[in-house]
What we know:
This protein is α/β, with parallel strands linked by helices. The chain is built from eleven helices and 14 strands. The structure holds pyridoxal-5'-phosphate.
Amino acid sequence: MIPVFNPVITNNDIKSVLLSLRRKEISGNFSHSIIDLEERFANYCGSRFGVAVSSGTTALHLAVASLNINAGSEILVSATTNIATALACYHNNCKPVAVDSRLDTWNIDEDEISKYITKKTRAIIVVHFLGNPVNMEKVLKIANKYNLYVIEDAAEAHGSAFNNKKVGSFGDIGCFSFYANKTITSGEGGILTTNNKKIAEKLKLMRNLGFTKKRFVHYIAGYNFRLTGYQAALALSQLKRINSIIKKKIEIANLYKKYLKDFDGVRLQESLKNSINTFWMIGILNLYKKNNKIILSKKLRSFGIETRSFFLSIRKQPCFKKIYNKKDYLTPNSNYLWDNGLYLPSSINLSEAKIFYICKKIKSAY
Length: 366
Ligand SMILES: *Cc1c(COP(=O)(O)O)cnc(C)c1O
């Protein structure tokens, strides 16, 4: 089976983790690797500060928690995203308002955002889906006009850029994941980026139970969202070769484009002008009505090719059934992406011959 994703752990990665363990970087408190990772990752993104945490999910949770948003507020989120984006709102007692997607970039529809803004809206969380940058110029303009915070869920978009600026550095806070299949990994893990020193300090306090000078007297109700030192060492080792990882991902995307270009059964993700899509995963939309995505996916499986479905719209998640009125915020485009979208194998060790084979089988499945 050609898997959707196959992790690449190099000897250097292993050495870094071993070294870190020898230095006894076990917890999330006393570790040079964490400080190093925070500095280098922030620097890589063009942000001033980095705060490492236990996952992309806890990064998003902490981002919302740090911004003094009142309970009962509304936060606009891209409809097509990992549930973690909406849970960050929900678990902070805010309502995730799903904004529908575009059918070309598969991202939040920047021109629709204003329509969802009410007196209760406090923030927007945009998602750079599959590594494809959102038009941050438009988003920031709206946010300034309505005085909203901007959080970028860049969990899939390490190194992606818009107008020559890396994602995660546009909004008040950027959130990245270091989950096993993400562009770089620490196993489980994540990091927040910000240019605001006060926010960075607050995030560091909140991830560490709100510990301040007077030990065991807590002024902030924090969390334990710490990353361990040896996990940071793995991410740090991968960060050192992130440019070659991204180069490979873009090459893979170009090969899929080349072999699927003249085939009208599927549609590929389109990127905006002035943007760099780092193609965390290669997605396709099935355009052939008689052959829905489930049939297509089953056929590909019989040829030894694994695929995976896109995300179900936040608006349609059963766990949020109670928070929406029946007719509110319907997301027809996001539903269309769910009905027709599949990820193809996208590991950086995928050969051109395999990509050619996968494309041949996609065509023959029609
Ligand atoms: C992976 C992912 C997350 C969650 O990150 P974890 O590290 O798995 O908690 C959040 N948002 C998006 C868009 C993701 O792809």
